[in-house]
Amino acid sequence: MLTALSISLDELAVGFSIGLVGVPVALTIILVALQAFIFTFFGLTFGSKLKRYLGEWSEKLAGIILGLLGLWILIDASVQLAHR
C-alpha cells in the first residue's frame, strides 16, 4: 500500500511538472505512463537478477544513486540560477 502511494505521488509530481511546462494533457498522460512502465519493467527485471549478487546492498546502492541524482539536479539548478 505504501509503495503504491509513493509511486502515485511521484507520478503526480511528474505530471504537474510536465503540465506546468505546457505539454498537452494527452501527451503528458502518455509520457507518464510510458516512463512508469519502462522503469518498473527494468527495475523488476534487473532487481531480480542483481538480488543474488548484491542482496541487501542493492537497496543501499539505489539510495546512493538517487541521492547523487538529487545532488546533481540541485547543483545544476544552482549553476543555472547563478548564470541568470
From TrEMBL:
<keyword id="KW-0472">Membrane</keyword>
<protein>
    <submittedName>
        <fullName>Manganese efflux pump</fullName>
    </submittedName>
</protein>
<keyword id="KW-0812">Transmembrane</keyword>
<feature type="transmembrane region" description="Helical">
    <location>
        <begin position="12"/>
        <end position="41"/>
    </location>
</feature>
<keyword id="KW-1133">Transmembrane helix</keyword>
<feature type="transmembrane region" description="Helical">
    <location>
        <begin position="61"/>
        <end position="82"/>
    </location>
</feature>
<keyword id="KW-1003">Cell membrane</keyword>
<dbReference type="Pfam" id="PF02659">
    <property type="entry name" value="Mntp"/>
</dbReference>
<dbReference type="InterPro" id="IPR003810">
    <property type="entry name" value="Mntp/YtaF"/>
</dbReference>
